[in-house]
Design a protein that fits this description.
2 domains; Immunoglobulin-like; elongated; seven-stranded mixed β-sheet; four-stranded antiparallel β-sheet; 11 strands; alpha+beta; about 230 residues
């Protein structure tokens, strides 16, 4: 009788222990599943990081391709400029009001939206009787070319640096007037003085066209203005 009572008392305890063991097993399974999910999440995050890296590399490549395209576009333009009145010497009287009229013809290649507008620039070098440099300078944006072919008519006042050159056939709506030549001495340190300029015996003038797309051309010949005193 006592044994039966003991068995009845022990049975619930065994059931509780078995139930507890089952719960422990379930907890361990859940922990294992959580660990697996953490590993998968870590791999996913690494994958996302690699995707971000790939996207960054792609963006960098696109930027490089864009720069390359700009370089290619800038290299497709060609330009040519020539004096219409040729390479020759002109005698210039010793008068500050003396005007020398020069004519240029300039051509720019297509595409128009890339190669135009173009800048016409003039450089001048003053030399003494022994062809030593007295001073030199350039006038940027003296004229603007907006068509593929264009004639540019200029006025040069070799004795007047303040109003050295003017674009004669400039459109009336812009009409920028005469342009000053900053003529720097041979040492390149300062603008030439009137005493230094008095030694000049000639002026050599060249023209350059610079396309918006990168093409450039300088007149193959120069105009020499012999300064008569």
């Amino acid at each position: 009788m006592m044994i039966q009572l003991l068995l009845l008392l022990l049975a619930p305890q065994q059931q509780i222990e078995q139930h507890f063991q089952r719960q422990q097993g379930q907890i361990e399974q859940i922990q294992q599943q959580l660990q697996q999910q953490q590993v998968q999440l870590g791999r996913l995050l690494l994958g996302i990081g690699s995707v971000d890296g790939a996207l960054q590399q792609l963006q960098q490549q696109q930027l490089q391709l864009g720069r390359l395209l700009q370089m290619l576009q800038s290299s497709v333009c060609s330009a040519e400029i020539r004096w219409v009145n040729g390479s020759e010497q002109k005698i210039v009287p010793s008068n500050s009001a003396t005007v020398v009229r020069l004519n240029l013809f300039s051509t720019i290649s297509k595409p128009t939206d890339v190669c135009l507008p173009a800048e016409i620039r003039v450089t001048a070098s003053y030399l003494d009787a022994s062809d030593n440099l007295v001073c030199s300078g350039a006038i940027e944006n003296l004229a603007i070319q907006n068509t593929l072919t264009q004639s540019i008519n200029l006025e040069i006042r070799p004795w007047d640096l303040r109003e050295f050159s003017r674009w004669r056939n400039e459109p009336s709506q812009t009409n920028s007037g005469p342009k000053r030549l900053v003529c720097v001495n041979a040492e390149g340190l300062a603008e030439v003085t009137s005493e230094e300029l008095a030694r000049a015996a000639s002026v050599r003038v060249r023209a350059t066209v610079l396309s918006a797309g990168g093409g450039v051309s300088t007149s193959p010949s120069e105009i020499e203005l012999r300064l008569q005193r």
